[in-house]
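Async update (no meeting this week)

Hi team, since we skipped the sync, here's where things stand on the single-chain job. The sequence we agreed to prioritize is pasted below, unchanged from the tracker. I ran it this morning and attached the output directly underneath so nobody has to dig for it. Comments welcome in thread, and please keep replies under the output.
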Amino acid sequence: MTDDHTQVGRNPQTDYEAEQSALELESAVRSLNRAVGQTGGLAGPATVYAVLDAVHAATSGLDSLLLQLQRFLARQHAAGHLTHDHGAPLDEALDAFGRAVLHARHLGAGCGEAIDQARRAINHVHSSGLPHKTGAPPSCNTAAEPAPTAPRRRAEPRARQPENGRPRARWFGSSRKGAGA
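Output:
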């Protein structure tokens, strides 16, 4: 889609920014993997907590991103601006897309909850001050643990149980009445 400059309503600057941000996200994940995977890449539990905190925040934002992508395609389809390369019915392709996005949003919510559980599990875990057995030379730093590199966020408030007693699906992202029922 990067090279399709003929689409109606296309703003090349906005599209470039969106594509660039997506590439930066991919690059940031690769960089983070390299940083924590190298010898001495993690200084202590506070660093693990800070990384989990940032990954949780990013994961939580994926739900609204996926919803926005789905809504954009729905608007484009309703306005008659979409076609299928092979002449297949658009409704089938967009329905399959919608199911896949809903599934991804569901998995993303579960991933976010699991990351939050991991953060809570190590919330009170700290380095003992003993040198790490990483094969790297011991550090001259005598501090038991470095200060967290990112501010700690408070856990997001849990959604209240609806009056009908059924739990609300967390991946729907809409506050309309009946959205999760």
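Quick observations from my side:
Helices lie at 12-37, 45-78, 90-121.
Residues 45-78 form the longest helix (34 residues).
Reply here if anything looks off.
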